[in-house]
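subagent[fold] <- orchestrator: predict structure for attached chain, return C-alpha cells only, no commentary.
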Amino acid sequence: MSAEPIMEPVMPQVDPIDLLRTIEEASPMPIRPEYVEGTVVVPPQPNDNHNDGAFELSFQFRAAGFRLVGMGNGYRAANKDGGTLGLVVPDFYVRRRKASELDESYRKANKGWYPVDMIALVGEVTSSNHWADTGPKLRTYAAAGIPVYVLIDRHSKTAHCYTDPVLPGEDPTEAYYDTDTKVDLGAPLPLPAPYPTLDTAPFLES
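subagent[fold] -> orchestrator:
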C-alpha cells in the first residue's frame, strides 16, 4: 500500500480517548485511530490481502472451537496509576470471556473501549505501518500482560508467535516478549496449547 500512517504526539494534559474521538469525528473517511507510547497512530486503509488473511486466521480459530475469536473491538490498557497506557484495535483476537455487564460499563465509561484484560491472544497483520506492530504495539501488548501475540509481518515475509510477556521495571516501553516462534510466511505457525497451528499461506501474494 502507498498510504502511510499518520502519527501525532499527545500532549500530557489531553485525555487520549477524547483526542481519538475528535480525530475520528474530523476525518472525512471512516478511521479508527489508536494510541501507543504517547503517540496517536492512524493506520492506513488495509488492502484485500490484509483483510482476507486476517479473516482466514479468525476462521481457523473458530474452526478449532474458539468461539470468542473476534475482530473490530477497541481495547484500553491502563497504567498502574489508572491512566491510559494504550488504545488498540487489533486485527483479530481471542477473548477470555464474553463482555459482562462490568465490561460494558467499562466500555461506556471509556467511550467505546473495552478493558484489555478481556484478551487472551492478540493478532496483527502489518501494512505500511509495520514499524508500529513490530515495535510500540508489541511493547504495549507485552506491558499489558497479553500472553500470546501473533504477528503476520508482510514486510519481512515472516510470521511470529510471541509468548511470555515481560515488564522488567516501571517503564512500559521496555516491555518485551521473551519467546519468539518465527516461521517464513506461508509455513505453519505453531501456537502454544490449546491454540491451533495456523496456516499462514493465505498471506502469500498470488
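orchestrator: received. Logging for downstream: The two ends are 16 Å apart (CA to CA). Residues 5 and 43 are 5 Å apart (CA to CA).
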